[in-house]
Amino acid sequence: MEARSYIGVPVRRVEDRRFVTGQGRYTDDIVLPGMLYAWIVRSPHAHARIRAIHTEKARQHPGVVAVFTGKDMLDDGVGSLPTGWQIGSDMKEPPHYALAVDKVRYVGDGVAVVIAETKAAARDAADLVEVDYEELPAVVDAAEALKEGAPLVHDEAPGNLCYVWELGDREATDRALATAHHITKLEFVNQRLIPNAIEPRSAIGHYDPGRDELTLYTSSQNPHLIRLLLSAFVLKVPEHKVRVISPDVGGGFGSKIFHYPEEVICAWSSRKLGRPVKWTAARSESFMSDAHGRDHITTAEMGFDRDGRIVGLRVRTIANLGAYLSTFAPGVPTWLYGTLLAGQYKTPHIHVEVKGVFTNTTPVDAYRGAGRPEATYVVERLVDLAAHEMGIDPAELRRRNFIQPDEFPYQTPVVLQYDSGNYEGALNKVLEMADYEKLRAEQKRAREEGRLIGIGLSCYIEACGLAPSKVAGAIGVRAGLYESAAIRVMPTGKVQVFTGTHSHGQGHETTFAQIVAHELGIPLEDVEVVHGDTAEIPFGMGTYGSRSLATGGSAIYRALEKIKAKARKIAAHKLEVAEEDLEFRNGQFIVKGTDRAIGFGDIALTAYVPHDYPDDLEPGLEENAFYDPANFTFPFGAHLSVVEVDPDTGKVKLLRYLAVDDVGRIINPMIVEGQIHGGVAQGVGQALLEGAVYDRSSGQLLTGSFLDYALPRADDLPSFEVGHQETPCPHNPLGAKGAGEAGTIAATACVVNAVIDALYHLGVRDLPMPLTPERVWRAMRGLPTDGAAS
Amino acid sequence: MKVRVRKVNPVKALFKTGGGVMRHTIQVTVNGQTHQVEVESRMLLVELIRDVLGLTGTHVGCDTSQCGACTVHVNGEAVKSCTMFAVQADGCEITTIEGLAQDGQLHPLQEGFWQEHGLQCGFCTPGIIMAAADLLKRNPNPSEDEIRHALEGNYCRCTGYHNIVRAIQYAAARMRGEAVVPRGEAAPTGAS
Amino acid sequence: MIPQTFAYKKAHTIDEALALLRAHGDDAKLLAGGHSLIPLMKLRLSTPELLIDIGGIRELTEIREQDGRIELGALVTHRMIEFSTLLKQKCPVLPEAAALIGDPQVRNKGTIGGSLAHADPAADYPAVMLALDAEIEATGPDGSRTIAAREFFQGLFTTALRPDEMLTRVRVPAMPPRSGAAYLKFPNPASRYAVVGVAAFVKLAPDDTCAEVRIGITGAAPAAFRATRAEEQLVGRAIDDRTLTAALEDLVDPDDLLSDLAATAEYRAHLCHVLTRRALRQAAERAHS
Predict the structure, then answer these.
(1) Under an 8 A CB cutoff, do C104 and B79 touch?
(2) A693 in contact with C, Cβ within 8 Å
(3) Which whole number is the average pLDDT over B66-70?
(4) Which pairing describes strands A652-662 and A720-724: parallel, antiparallel, or unpaired?
(5) For residue range A609-627, what is the model confidence (pLDDT) as tens digits?
(6) Average pLDDT over chain A, rounded to an integer
(7) pLDDT attached to residue B8
(8) What is the pTM assigned to this prediction?
């Protein structure tokens, strides 16, 4: 009987039994003997000098074991949290201590930690820590921060400027725009978002003095990187004496990539106190202390010739980086943004300039899509608006500009070389699924009845599968971005797979097991995927940038090739034939043209009980591989949404959402669809609901809880209509590109385009996000939207 | 059902605040097992469930009573266990996600979430399953709109709710005794 | 997430609760469903020294019909109201409004008495209470008194309840013939509280003109209020587009309304118009049928 293929099969997830029965094990679920609890005293001010911190009363509170301040940590030699991405040689990199030392720079900046026998005692005593602040003027808006005389966040960064970065040919772009037949210009804010994974961040430091070993449990997407940064840069302890475990993690969306102060605080204080120390964020702390996303102020101009062909694109962006540089912050609004500005189009000239700016706000870093949704928003809003302005159907205008399937590999004017694609194919498919012509007719009819229906498109490209290490090095990433895998075949033929990526919802335990089962011809239940523990996994770069399958999966594939090569040697020996006389099929090595065969299980047993074994071969069957991708991968797709705007209230209802995505070869279609659904929901969230708001004078975060910051709920969204196109990635062995961010990258522009499509005839050409009912209502009436509540 | 009374060691009060603290001995039956526990007035029901009884399938995702990750059943009704003091549950019957499966058989909702890929990171899942169980008790054949409305008290950041709706529809059909075709395939067996 | 310490006592009767209230004064708070109070305590925005749990007072958990009115005990939950067959027959607007409060879990625990006594400016019930001309029964050391809904809501989180009183019952009329009511809500996208909520009650005369009308508006101002100017304009007229436009012309003054992250006063005023118009039409249609 043929072994079943596991590729392209919607296998239900192996990890789900534990999750549906309440047996998932998240960081906060872990209780260690003698564990203490930390509560962090946070700044209520956006900007203030710390004159003094009085901790005596808190120390005396019953149950309190210790109170530490930033100075205590500094005096003990604890270093600053480093950033992992350098933008240019002039980038300003002020220190970021786990607890503030001289000044607090945003509301929520930690100033002290209270450690006690119970959570409640730590919380109670935190109210007794007295901090003497000298309040300073604060600046929260990045454009304001660049102005002369703005409050200075860091002495090291004059004018609050962290860096200026540019990409593309300035002169050529200026020339192209100067002679363009039509120019579409937009000035807009891509608003700040708060990621809000539903599991709040949590960390446990556990120092074992007997072995001089430190274990950090942390809700991280990236355990090896945390170990490296914590040991080599912050605590300065040997890397091999630090173990980082990321158990089940309740969603990340980027916000759990980074090395956070609380990880340092728990790890360091556990060493000081000799007992485990746990910290878990309350949601209101998450709002203040999880890295935020987006926050760009952009002016963009796109020029067209008479036929609607794009001749040039000029983009100026001010990126708010927050008060400190988070781990990957500098790279997000630069290399992950500017390089995607060609989108799916043959734009001959592009020039982008980005200013990275410090403000008195929570640090900003990668959030689902990270730079690419912002780039897609620029390109897709401009193209769509241009279509309206030039009176061309938005689908048609896109068609006139698509890179054609026979033009790959395609070199864009902004560094990237796209590997493969069929952009028009995806657009045609989504238009067909939606019955575009009929939709347009319905829209027309509805308008005659006074109903406002809008149809929006978004054709996106992303660069995923982070990343070729040479390229990473060239663009300032202070790390390689390869991935590792280890395959351990046990004597009974059962297999453990160790991956340096981390699953926090993506289903790696299933997808990776499918690859292994497929390649080895063994049952899926014989494969166990291990992730999230630096003591078990050789090395890893974690999960973000839709990299896990393309990069981590490819590393697994390479390790499998080594396993199969060695197994073949063993099989040849056992069957007494030459290796090339064997074929591997259905989990067996078969002597070609015969029925002589040896099963994978027998080979595994032979490897560990090598009584009858090749002389020149090591026993055992276990292989490592590191895979460094040759290029980024370039998933793409076309999305279409239909909205209805209530003409009385301005409320937008999302009626339909259709997506056609090409994420390369699909291992598990059910999981891929789930990734698209979730991505779309977050992109819709940015378009219609979400946005962080700071008070401009006090610097207080006004959207500091779910009472004021709206996440999409079930009744905010329709069911999604999802289609696929499969163009395999030509340069990795799986042909996979990545699916995690696609939905988010496409959806925001898609929905905004739909709303503008509904309102353009009323004179509305742009709206600030989120498109709240009040803003839409104001725009319909010709009132300024900046006076609106957000 | 056989009820076994087990004395749980309460979290010891390691401090005293002059007279303000009041402690109470309460009796709760959780997933069929009766416990006598001493609790501080301010202990939330979710803290009793997680920290004292060690049932960590019930999660805490917010501090403003909105995310619904902590949803359990108290006397058969879905309740946010972060918005109820443990002492208020004195004498109550509580069911958590750990108590939903019967005799090793998954509840149809647990099966539905698994088959229809109704979860990703799994953190909101127990709360959503408990909320959905309350819905299906009242409305065995809910429409998609009714399901979405009934999930107003639960946030999921991973799934976009699409497959959660499918999972609940799957469970509803199963509970009505109808045949269902699952989306997900059980791990297929390999080479024979 | 962790409230300050407090003492907790369970009251089994109204008298017990009142005695505890009297003994502890401002330091004590009544705890019913807890869905207004506990969230505030967790953020330490409310720090009572004593909680008096009235959740076990059985006599306050009933819905019953008496003398043409429906009486609801203070501890009746939103969920009981939402699914009450009696209310669905006699006063359907109340179950309709209850179904829009919070979410199912909140409705399972939250009580009508707790919600009314808390007097959140964005709560749903106050609009309905005003439109129905409900009576609120307060019980204190000297016995019970009845407060008209119009007198009850006095300001932001402020009611006509005295410190030594507790809200014990609510009475709403059974809908008379040729009358209808509706509650429409424009929810805050984050909290789902009402940015504006409008309840309208309409009773038609035999000639289909408006015999009696009440409009209750919540969410818009620091306290729920009756739109009396508009009501006066409507009485004696047929509820049609022209009448509505004229009557709602100065429905509210934006200067009296709240401005916050969710909506400016200007937009709230507009929403008051839109929802009032829609609610009146719906109420009138129901009165017809």
Answers:
(1) no
(2) yes
(3) 97
(4) parallel
(5) 999 999 999 999 999 999 9
(6) 97
(7) 39
(8) 0.96
Mean pLDDT of C278-282: 98
Q: Taking the C-alpha atoms of A314, A320, A321 and A323 in order, what is their torsion angle to the nearest 10 degrees?
A: 160
Task: Report the residue of chain C nearest B150, measured CA to CA.
Answer: C104
Q: Is C149 helix (H, G, I), strand (E, B) or coil?
A: helix
The whole-number pLDDT of residue A790 equals 57
Q: Which residues in chain A touch residue B184, judged by CB atoms under 8 angstroms apart?
A: 10-13, 670
> Is the Cβ pair C5, B78 closer than 8 Å?
no
* Contact A37/C at CB under 8 A: no
Q: What is the reported pLDDT for A416? A: 95
C206 CA: distance to closest CA in chain B (Å):
38
ipTM passes above 0.85? yes
Whole-angstrom CA distances from C158 to B190, C162, C255 are 69, 10, 20
* Residues in chain B closer than 8 A to C104 (CB atoms): 78, 131, 134-135, 150, 152-153
Mean pLDDT of A218-230: 97
Between chains, do B40 and C5 touch, taking CB under 8 Å as contact? yes
Residue of A127, A191, A648, A715 best to disrupt the C interface, most CBs of C under 10 A: A648
| Cα angle, residue A118 at apex, residues A257 and A70 outer, rounded to 5° | 55
Q: For residue B188, what pLDDT is reported? A: 59
CB-count exposure of residue A348 (10 Å: 0-12, 13-18, 19+): middle
What confidence score (pLDDT) does residue B12 get?
36
Cβ–Cβ contact B167 with A under 8 A:
no
pLDDT at residue A782 is higher than 50: yes
Could you tell me the residue ranges of all domains in chain B?
22-99, 108-178
Within 8 A of A16 by CB-CB distance, chain B residues are 113-114, 119, 122
Place of tokens 């005794």: B177
Q: Is A700 on the interface with C (CB under 8 A)?
A: no
Arch. (CATH architecture) of B108-178: Orthogonal Bundle (1.10)
For chain C, which domains are there?
7-53 (3.30.43.10), 58-173 (3.30.465.10), 179-288 (3.30.390.50)
**Residue A144 exposed, middle or buried by CB count within 10 Å (0-12, 13-18, 19+):** middle
pLDDT at position B187: 65
Percentage of residues in chain A having pLDDT higher than 70: 99
Residue in this structure with the two tokens 């210790």, named with its chain if needed: A66
The residue-averaged pLDDT of B122-150 equals 98
Dihedral of CA atoms C104, C106, C107, C111 in degrees, nearest 10, equals: 180
Q: Is C214 in the B-facing interface, judged by CB distances under 8 Å?
A: no
Any idea what the Cα angle at residue A746 is, between residues A744 and A750, rounded to 5°? 120
Query: Between 3.40.50.720, 3.40.50.1820, 3.30.365.10, 3.40.50.300, what CATH number should domain A482-627 receive?
Result: 3.30.365.10
